[in-house]
Amino acid sequence: MNKIAAMSKITPVTWKDVTINDGFWGQWQKTNASSTVNAVYNRFKETGRIDAMKLSWKEGMPDMPHVYWDSDVAKWMEGAAYILYYHPDQEISEKLDNIIDMIEASQHESGYFNSYFQTIEPDKIFTDRTAHELYTAGHMIEAAVAHFYSTGSKRFLGLMTRFADHIESVFKINGNQYYSTCGHQELELALFRLWQATGEKRYMELSKHFIDKRGTDPRDRVFSVKNGEYPADPPLRCQLEYNDTYAQDDAPARDLPAAAGHAVRAMYFYSSMADISREYGDDELYEACLRLWDDSTLRKMYVTGGVSADRFGEAIGMAYTLPNAGSYAETCASIGMAFFAQRMFSIKPDAIYADIIERQMYNGALAGLSLDGASFFYDNALQSVPAYNDFTTGIHDKRLPFPHYRRQRVFECSCCPPNILRFIAALGEYVYATENDTLFISQYIQSSAQMQLASGALKVKQTTNYPWQETVSFQIEGDAAVKATLAFRVPGWCTNSSVSVNGTSLMSDHSLAAGVSLSQGYLYVPASLIGDGVVTLTFPMPVTELEANPLVAEDSGKVALMRGPLVYCLEAVDNGFNLLDAVVLRDPQYRTEIKDISGIPMVVLRGDAAVRTNDQWDKALYRTGGSKYEKVTFTAIPYFAWANREAGDMSVWLHKEASITDAIG
Amino acid sequence: MNKIAAMSKITPVTWKDVTINDGFWGQWQKTNASSTVNAVYNRFKETGRIDAMKLSWKEGMPDMPHVYWDSDVAKWMEGAAYILYYHPDQEISEKLDNIIDMIEASQHESGYFNSYFQTIEPDKIFTDRTAHELYTAGHMIEAAVAHFYSTGSKRFLGLMTRFADHIESVFKINGNQYYSTCGHQELELALFRLWQATGEKRYMELSKHFIDKRGTDPRDRVFSVKNGEYPADPPLRCQLEYNDTYAQDDAPARDLPAAAGHAVRAMYFYSSMADISREYGDDELYEACLRLWDDSTLRKMYVTGGVSADRFGEAIGMAYTLPNAGSYAETCASIGMAFFAQRMFSIKPDAIYADIIERQMYNGALAGLSLDGASFFYDNALQSVPAYNDFTTGIHDKRLPFPHYRRQRVFECSCCPPNILRFIAALGEYVYATENDTLFISQYIQSSAQMQLASGALKVKQTTNYPWQETVSFQIEGDAAVKATLAFRVPGWCTNSSVSVNGTSLMSDHSLAAGVSLSQGYLYVPASLIGDGVVTLTFPMPVTELEANPLVAEDSGKVALMRGPLVYCLEAVDNGFNLLDAVVLRDPQYRTEIKDISGIPMVVLRGDAAVRTNDQWDKALYRTGGSKYEKVTFTAIPYFAWANREAGDMSVWLHKEASITDAIG
Predict the structure, then answer these.
(1) Which end of chain B is more exposed for a tag (fewer CB within 10 A), N or C?
(2) Do A420 and A440 fall within a single domain?
(3) Tell me, what's the ipTM?
């Protein structure tokens, strides 16, 4: 049986159709449009990335172009294009046009464009699979698609269809003699979007071509260490990064056994696999997507949504191996998992996918950005101990701390800053999706939207102070307001949500009113029950202590705090004790309050804990047990807000006092 | 005030004077002489290390010599020399002579010898500080000294004094134009021993020369990354390894602020600093030694004694940063710390030094060797999770697990196997030391010994089943049996030791008999109180739960189990539950029993713990807290004995149930 064919085909409501003016995400989009878009551009200008597009770099000049620079610029262009649609800005617009001018002038007559290879190694074009050319091409194509949607202009899109045609010619029609698939996946996604934007099916077919080819061509195994065999001796550490799993070359896509390898490559690739499986009704590919989804979200994901646990090779890591102090959790990988989730939802609507998108939005991805929108984390720590050497020996280790405890303005490999830029700018596309006359409401974001259902147009207005507050109100109007069905997501973190219309309950404590149904985490409400009334959803947000699966040794004996969709953490600046030694009491008497963090009021948590008293230790490193404790009150802040004030220790997972002896038998 | 001059000068009783025939270490020395010495030699023969000495390797042949191979062979020679003294073995003796023949034939007329450079790059001799030439020279010299002590022959020693003379000429008299100190310290130690063996003071002066020069010559900063400055961007991970601290080049020896950098280099260097500070009465150097000792043992040492916490650069790591799953804890670094401790004791007798030697002997160093003596750990895990992927997804990750859970027969860089060989072979030298008429008794090892005190010869016989049993008996005889003072170490792990003579108490519960005194962890007993009686020491060995300092975040909420000097661990093969999730109960009802592990009876510990029941988890990765527990009984084995049976999880640190709420206030 063809599972895909039997499934719903969902259409996301595009970012253009959803207007986010204020509220939590409205503020972030304003920061994005006023700060981040400039911060990223300026750093790229300063580091030579923008001007590299002129192909005028010469030996001896500073800022030699790098093979992946075009992708950084392209992601900025994509983000800027989204932003311009809602936030017209002459200066940004000119910068964008100026880069397009440079690309137009620099593009090779074949359609090829890459500022590194055209400038530095023109004779090496498409000879080295590790050199990111198809990856940068993908990002350029995505930027062109965004530019087209945002402005209606086909100029940039035209340039990039020429590039795509050239790639088709080299890699599909003629067959490149050096390698056959992308060293860093991304182009597969881009070609799919190029098909959507142009209606030219060849591009989707080329995307499928790259997916089908992957893992089948021995020439592509450039990252291999002895084909994954154990060497007799332990290999050098650096070699460990590069085996067949690194770029998902260990098997053809349909046979990939587990989520593995470089996390961003993996998430982008799985996303494109989902795209193609949906459009081609390819069950085998979809089964692989389900397997990779389960493996990555049920065994290899941090509670924040972070998904690259392994610094070696920026990799997904082994099952249940989620080190906190050594977490990698690249911002791009969280964004990539949101892409994957979005596509899985489009095949089969299920709240598990929207839950993961929400987890990334508020935690894994958002933590990558400072509150002022101008600095960035590449890797995201779940535990940070920067102060160690200072407060003990008085000597600061000169080595750069691992993991990082301060966001930076730009990176040598600066993929994350423009990625969070474009993610926030296009956030509207995660809110709604439609299928015939059903409207799926997946994210609770203060916004207004308009969309087309089978029976006509529909306008939806969301009013909420989510995630700080637990209620969301909806009003609908339009042609479809009679025949539509609204499917509201019941967040996975919420145990007793309630929904009412003008005070009449539709769902309460899981008892449903007539005509209302609950399926795969969505509450289906006929619009006829709503009419011109106000739907009020209430998602109670008590402080919740989460445990990790017992197989996650790192988190055994610990809890992570959540309230609503937000993961919380303790940061030294709020807590004048050794927070890494703190033990949350059996009954911590949780309370919430509003606290201003870098000018932004947030709901913070307060609770009771205990820490070992220091006086009994003197200078000893180890001593017999039975320490005394003193009680402390802790303050936990949203994880995304950490590292915006004075540097210090931080931890997401906290020790928890348990009463085990009493609880047994 | 000259602190060194005011201090005692202690002379260790040599390994030749202490005969260890049976008991715990007698068995290990037998394994060493029958298994390890052959295992190491055979692997070195198979891998080409032995034959490399012929300098006959040619391009295209297998097994190209490596720059550090001579040090591997030299350490084997040193170990073999010690072994032959007590365990004559014609075959080993011939192998040793055969290598010396090769060296004699191959040595350059200048005195220089290095099988790599003479064969492969004769024009590059002494041009590259990172190339280990002075390090291999050091080990060759140490081997020659051992060979001389063991056999009385001066043949090998003569070859190596010529080499030392050549080094003196190149590096001190003329001044090498490329660099001025060892890229990997070791030669400093060796030259000191060469002085002791030959009486030629020039060698000690050359040792001091290398110590004084270090950290002062800009040409030596070859490991530097921008001289330790933070780069604006995070540097590549591999660069992190190589900064000025890597080879202790960040400051002149006397100014070194903290124990840092490559742990083996550090420990060998600190040891030589102690040697020189003692002989020259150099207070400033001694102060540095004290500072480095405190920093390494009180802030940067695993409970097992392991001292390289940081895989990046095989480095000592940051203060209180002691990851268990990612521990490095190189076997050689533990041995190096024993060297350092031995020398610090020689300046000032204090049980803290002998305690650390004991910790390394029974734990950090010994874990490097399999029970059959034929395979080895290079890095020593404190927590191992090899089974993860197998028992969860059914998919085994093809990447080599970090850290290692299986000892290996040989390594590409195979320094640890011959190091543990020579350490165990010469273990006798850690047992006793003398100063005038005082005999320090530092280690409790079934043995007999003879030594010279100021008032004459003394024979000492120790009878004990330590560390399995808590009593040790001593008998003394000889000229000095009247005037001597015996100083018995009271182990730091023991809280209520007692000492008696023929049943009459000398110390009990810290009350001392007349004429007996306790100082710096040693109980001073005049021989006159002993006469021809039997001294019985009792060191009660209850199971002890150790906590780590609250600043060690990794071990917060956990305990490590010790009994006597042995650190224990849980290994999967003895425990049919998820031991990494186990919580030791408030009252674990500890009991001991004898268990046979790979043919060797050992005292193992049994106790009560609890683990979370799995049924409540299904496939969830995170869920709200309040898990149910079930009671389990655990078995803990000595840490050194792990990884000799079926592979599986292992952990030294265990979660501990605490009753914090009740204990506060």
Answers:
(1) N
(2) no
(3) 0.92
